[in-house]
Amino acid sequence: MLLCLPWLAVPLWLAAAQGASPGLLERANETLGTAGLVTVVAAITVVVTLMLVRWSFIRPIHRTARWLEEQRLSGRSAHPILGEGVFGPLWRELAHLLTSLASARAAAEEEARLRDAAASVWTADRLRAHVTTRIDGAPLFVVSNREPYMHVRRNGGIKCLVPASGLVTALEPILRACDGTWIAHGSGDADRERVDAHDRLRVPPDQPEYSLRRVWLTREEEEGYYYGFSNEGLWPLCHIAHTRPLFRASDWQAYQVANQKFADAVVDEMDGSRGGLVLVQDFHFALLPQLIKRARPDARVGVFWHIPWPNPEAFGICPWQSEMLDGLLGADLIGFHTQAHCNNFLETVDRAFEAKIEWEQFAVRRHGHLTSVKPFPISVATMAGSGIVDDRPIEVRRSELLRVQGVSADFMAVGVDRIDYTKGILERFAAVERFLEKWSHFVGRFTLVQIGAPSRTHIKRYQDLVDSVTAEAERINARFATSSWRPIVLLSRHHEHAEIAPYYRAADLMFVSALHDGMNLVAKEFVMARDDGDGVLVLSQFTGASRELPDALIVNPYDTEQMADALRLALEMPEAERRQRMSHMRRTVADHNVYRWAAQLIGELADVRLETAGVSVVAGQAEVRPPASGWRARFRDESRVEMTDLKQSAPN
Question: By C-alpha distance, which of 291, 290, 230, 283 is closest to 264?
């Protein structure tokens, strides 16, 4: 009876609370008495508490359980749990965990598929295991200008950003596996607030497994070393794109200072270790190998040069050619994207120095030190691992993307580049204009979406290029556009990969018209994004990717007529041919993905023989070095095509 009393009293109290007459409230009090009042309050408290528990705990738990069940049954979810509150941290960790599990499941499925075909795919896990065995406990150091994690101030706090980089994708699994050290320029405005007294911090933030050592440069040093010598001098020097390189003595001085600072950091990090592997990244550090080798001759030093190496006549423009080459030849291993770039480098050394070129080994012997020069074509990861799949028809996805831009079209091409004079964006626009002139029935039906991220805009020639690209897009649009259509949609801002991927998957074709490019990973990203097996790649012959992807439509970006014809061929190509070409390209990129690139590069570096007084030392064992023969390399002629094609565009 006592248990029923509170529930009978609740209506009376609710009525009173809603403005019932005082007389009614008094009669309720008389009926219930003091004990009844206490019981009613307690009952209401229990009810409210139960409701709060249900809404705050039980319902989110059921929601989480349903989501986990969906993940378990389907392996993916287009509607991940979002929210904060009590369960916010748990949901975020579950999302990370399930993303990792989805990636692992996809990797296992892909490996099983390829194993059935007598092949084996390289994954992050396989790379980690492979490198751990190969380096056998030796410390690993990676040096790059760009850091894998950057701390910046945002909205009154400090946020950790992960700059988009294929290099991080390739090398982070290795550093995690061996607890290595990544040495990079601390460029974030809050970077100094997150390091210890030795300028180090552990990364990744959510699961620290390796060290990041930050190197500090003054604004003047960064201006001269990075923007000046590297990007106004070496970049146009190595890319034959009709842009004159600028070399200033002050920039060269800053380049030397920056390289010395990085060398000091590497040597400091190596203190107390026996030997080790040092992998130097790109043209910002041509002097670094020699500086490290002088201080630590027991280190195995490798360099990967991510941009082309031009023919000897072009590189000879650099006033400090000898110093640059001497610094690079301090490395035990130098890697380029293609054999042609390796050949160009060896030809350059052959002309500049009294050095012995061992063509049969693709190596240079100078001052008793041997440097191997080999191609390692970089690539992309096989799987994005997002777990989110859009199964709608391609026509629907394409229409939606274009509708957001205020355009209606039947066909869509996509271009993705930094706005750089080497990317051939103006040449691409000219090809679109010529295409519409020659085949007017595509007017109103074909649109190029050009995703162009402005870069290095504090260099004047880059500012001018952004203005030129914008003006040319506006001119062509003014000539052809209608109220509901325009031929070029220019998106001039930085886009995350998740924003670009829908364009890859919905486009009829990808248009790459680079004037000169070491590899062009965008082309490979497009291929791997097309899990529907459709789409056409129009690809410049002056990219490293064109040597690996002959099933693309290979074009000369200086030939506007040829590119216009290629656009028509791509749009009118039969579906069976499109799918056959795409299948071949996807197999090539999957078999030679970025993890395989990293495994080969680190494996070659681990096999380096450290030489002393004519004796090679491998894993602690001495071996007499055999005499080299004078036979010229069987692959030397591979450089002739690129050198012949590009020599005429070298500055005089």
Answer: 291
Q: What percent of the chain is predicted at pLDDT more than 90?
A: 65
CATH assignment of 394-591, given 3.40.50.720, 3.40.50.2000, 3.40.440.10, 3.40.50.300?
3.40.50.2000
* Number of alpha helices (DSSP H) and beta strands (DSSP E) in the chain: 23, 21
Task: Write down the residue that tokens 């990244």 correspond to.
Answer: 281
Helix (H, G, I), strand (E, B) or coil at 216: coil
The answer to whether 302 and 327 are in contact (CB under 8 A) is no
Above 70 in pLDDT, residue 111? no
Question: How much is the pLDDT for 293?
Answer: 97
- Give the residue carrying structure tokens 């990129």: 589
State the fold for domain 167-217+256-379+605-647: Rossmann fold (3.40.50)
- Per-residue confidence (pLDDT) for residue 77, from 0 to 100: 45
| Six-digit token string for 427 | 């040449």
Distance CA 77, CA 100 (A): 14
Amino acid at 410: D
pLDDT, tens only, 402-422: 999 999 999 999 999 999 999
* In the chain, domain spans: 4-71, 167-217+256-379+605-647, 394-591
Q: Which residues of 242-263 are buried (b: 16+ CB within 10 A; e: fewer)?
A: ebebebeeebbebbbbbbebbb
316, 268 Cβ separation under 8 angstroms: no
The more confidently predicted of residues 642 and 508 is 508
Residue 388: pLDDT band (50, 70, 90) is low
**H/E stretch holding 563:** helix 560-572
The reply to whether 167-217+256-379+605-647 and 394-591 are identical in fold is yes
368 contacts: CB under 8 Å, gap ≥ 6:
611, 614
What token pair was written down for 352?
A: 């500049």
In the three-class reduction of DSSP (H, G, I as helix; E, B as strand; rest coil), residue 319 is classed as coil
CA 226 to chain centre: 20
- How far is CA 52 from its chain centroid? 46
Torsion angle of C-alpha atoms 280, 283, 289, 291, degrees rounded to 10: -120
Reported pTM: 0.78
419's CB contacts (< 8 A; 6+ apart) are 425, 452, 453, 454, 455, 462, 465, 466, 469, 492
What's the mean pLDDT in 60-68? 70
Check if the beta carbon of residue 453 is closer than 8 Å to that of residue 497: no
Are 126 and 595 within 8 A, CB to CB? yes
Q: Which of 407, 420, 96 is nearest to 235 (CA)?
A: 420
The Cα 314–Cα 245 span in angstroms is 10
pLDDT in tens, 424-473: 999 999 999 999 999 999 999 999 999 998 989 889 999 999 999 999 99
Quick check: 71 pLDDT over 90?
no
Q: Around Cβ 147, how many Cβ atoms within 10 Å?
A: 25
How many Å apart are CA 556 and CA 30, to the nearest integer? 98
201-207, Cβ contacts within 8 angstroms, sequence gap of 24 or more: 203/148, 203/149, 204/149, 204/172, 205/149, 205/160, 206/96
Q: Which amino acid is at 572?
A: E
What's the rounded mean pLDDT across residues 509-520?
97
